[in-house]
Amino acid sequence: MIDIPVIFAFIIAFAVFVYVVMDGFDLGLGILFPLFPKKDDRDIIMNSVAPVWDGNETWLVLGGGGLMAAFPLAYSVLMPALYTPMIAMLVGLIFRGVAFEFRWRTLRERNRWDIAFAGGSLLATLAQGIALGAILQGVHVEGRHYAGGWWDWLTPFSLLTGISLVAGYGLLGATWLVMKTEGDLRERAYHLSWWLLFAMLAAIGAVSLATPFLSIEYAHRWFSWPGILLTAPVPVAVAAVTALLLRSLAARQDYRPFFLSLALFALSYAGLGISMWPYIVPRSITIWQAAAPRDSQIFMLFGIVVLVPMILAYTAWAYYVFRGKVDPHGGYHS
Amino acid sequence: MFEGWDAVFLARAQFAFTMSFHIVFPAFSIGLASYLAVLEGLWLWTGRDVFINLFNYWLKIFAIAFGMGVVSGIVMSYQFGTNWSAFSDKVGPVIGPLMAYEVLTAFFLEAGFLGVMLFGLKRVGPRLHFLATLMVAIGTLISAFWILSANSWMQTPAGYAVNADGQFVVASWLHVIFNPSFPYRLVHMVLAAYLTTSLVVGAVGAFHLLRDSHLAGARVMFSMAMWMAAIVAPIQIIAGDQHGLNTLEHQPVKIMAMEGHFQSHKDGAPLILFGLPSQSEGKVNYAIEVPKAGSLILKHSLDAPMTGLDTVPRENWPPVPVVFWSFRIMVGMGLLMVALGLLSLWMRWRGTLYDSRLLHIFAIAMGPAGFVAVLAGWFTTEVGRQPYTVYGLLRTVDSASPLAPPAVASSLIAFAIVYFIVYAAGITYLLRLMAAPPHPGEQGPSGDEPVRAAGITPASAVTGKT
To answer: Which phi and psi angles does B310 have, rounded to 5°?
Structure first.
C-alpha cells in the first residue's frame, strides 16, 4: 500500500519551496527597494517582476489551501498558533501586491506606493521567517486544538529566523537583479550580493547552531549515528555551494549567482525538513495523524499529477516570454 | 480592551468584512475578463481599431481590479485556518480539495497568462495573445465553478459521512461537487458577474456619451453593455426565481427569513413587500403585504399552506431583519436592471440610444447597482444559513478558532485600516481611468506616460459614480 500522506508531505513541501523560490526574489526586491532611490531604477526593478509576481503568490495560496485539504488538522492547529504573524504577512502582501499596479497610477511626486512595496515586502518576509521559527520551536496542542496564547510565537529564536529570511530573500533579490539588469544597477546589485551572501551565511550558521538547543530530538537527529549519514552531507554541500557562489560573484557572472543562491535555499530547506520529519507540527502531530482521509488525498492526487506539470510548463513559458535583461527604454510597459 | 467581546462574533465580523471587500472584485473581473476576450476576438475578426482601443482601455482597469482581487483573496485562503480552525479541521477533508482544485485549475491559469495578457501583445503576437486572454477569462469561470461548489456544499451538504474524529468525509465526490444548490447558485452568480460588469461598462460609456455623443469607443461600449443588460437582466430574474424554489426545498428556514414569515399560514401565505421584522417579537411590524401572493410565487398556488418560523426552535433562527432586507435590496436592484434594459431597447428602437440624456443618466446611476445586488445577495444567502456554517450540521459557534477576543479584535481593526487605505486608493485610480474617454491609439497597461495623460481629468468629472 502506497503511503499517501508521505507523498502529500512532499507535495506540500514542494509547493512551499516553489513559493520560496519564486516569491522569495520578488519579496527580496521589495526589501532592497530603499537602497535604490532613483525612480528609473525602481521602474526597472518593478518591471523585472511585474508580469510574473501574481503567479508567484499563487503558490502561497496552494500551500495554504493544500495544507487545509491534505492535512486539515495541521492547518487548524498551526494557523491559530501563528495568528499574529499570519495576519501581518497578509497585510504586508496586500500592500506590496497593490503597489505593482498603483505605483503607475499615482499623480504624486513622492510615490507612496514605493513605501508600501518596500514596507509590505519586509513585513511579509519577517512574518514568514517568524512563522517558520515558531513552527520549529513547537506549539502547545491539546486534543485537536491549539491551546497556547496569541503571543507564544514571539521568542529570540523566531526573531532570528525572521531576520534570517530577510537576509536570504534579500540575496535572492540582489542576484535576480544581477541577472535581469545592466549597467550601474547591476554593479550595485553585485556589490549588495556580497554583503547579503555573508549575512545569509551568518544566518544559516546561527539558526543551525540554535536549532539543536530547541529540543533534544533535533540534536539527536543531527548528531547521532546513523542519522548523521543523512545529515552530514547537508553542511558539506552548503560549503561547496558557497564556494561556487563566491567564485561566480568574483567572476561577475550574470546568471549563476541567482541559481546558486536558490541552491543555498534548497539546502537550508532540506535541513529544515530533516529536523522536522516526520512531524508536521513538531513534537505534537505527525503527518499521518494530520492527514485527511485517504479518499480526499487520492482525489487531489489525480489533479496534482495531471495539473502541476501543466502549471510548471505554462509558468515557464511566461518567464520565457519575458526572458533576458529588462529594457529600460521600452520594457514591458511599451 | 475587548475582553468582554464575543470572539465568535468578532470572527464573523472579520469574515464578513474581508469577504465583502473581496467579492466585488471577482464579480467584476469574471465579467470583465469575458468582455475583454470578446473585444479582442472582435478586433481579430473585424480588424476594426475601435475594438483594440476598447480592449486596451478596459485592460488597464482590469489590471487594477484583478490585482485587488488577488491580494484580498489570499486573505480569504488563510482566514479559514486563522479564524475558523475548528471548521477547517472538521470540513477540510470535503471542501479543502475543492479549493485546492480551484487553485490548480483556475488561479494558476489566470496568473500564468495574466502577465502575457497585460504586457505581452508585442512579444507574442495577436493570436497567442488572444489565447492568453481566453485562458484568463476561462480561469475566472473555472474559479467560480469550484468556489461556488464549496460554498453550495456548506448550504446543501450532500455525499458525505462523518468519521470517528468528527470530521466530514466524502462518500461521493460527484454528490459533493454537484450538491443540490450548486447549479442554481453557479448560474445565478455568473449571470450576476456579467450584469455587474455590463452595468459598469454601460455607465462609463454613458458618462462619455453625455459629453460627446459621437465618440466611437463610447458608442460601441454603451451599445454592447445595453444589449447585455436587456438580455441578461430578465434571464437573471428567472434564474433567481429557480434558485429561490431550490432554497425552499433544501433550506426552508432561509426562505421564511427572506419572506418575513414568522407565522405559519394554512391557506395561503401573504407576500410581504415591506415592513420592519422584529427578531425578538417574532413578527413583521408595519407590514405592507399582498394576501396569498407569497404562496403563489413560492408554491404556484394561491391557497398552498406555508410553514413559518413558529415551527422552528428560536435558537435555529437566522437573523431575520438582515436576511429580509438584503433580499429586498437585491430584488429591487434586479428590477431596476430590467427597467434599464427595457428603456435601452425602446431608445434603440427609436434611434436615440446615443442621444437620450435620460437613458444615459439612468445608466450612470445604475453603474454600481451590480455590486450592491451582489453584496445584498451574498448577505441573504450567507446570513440566511446561520446559525450554521454547514447547514443543519455544524453550528457557527462550534466552528471558530480558540482565540482570545483581543486577538480577533486587533486583526479586525488592522484589516479595516488597511482595506480602507488600499480600497480608497484603488477605487480612486479606477474612477480616474474610467473618467478619461477611450481614444484612438489607446495604450495597454503601461509605464507612466500614457497614464499621466489619463490622469489629468478633473476630479469633479467622476462625481455621480461611486
So the answer is: -65, -10
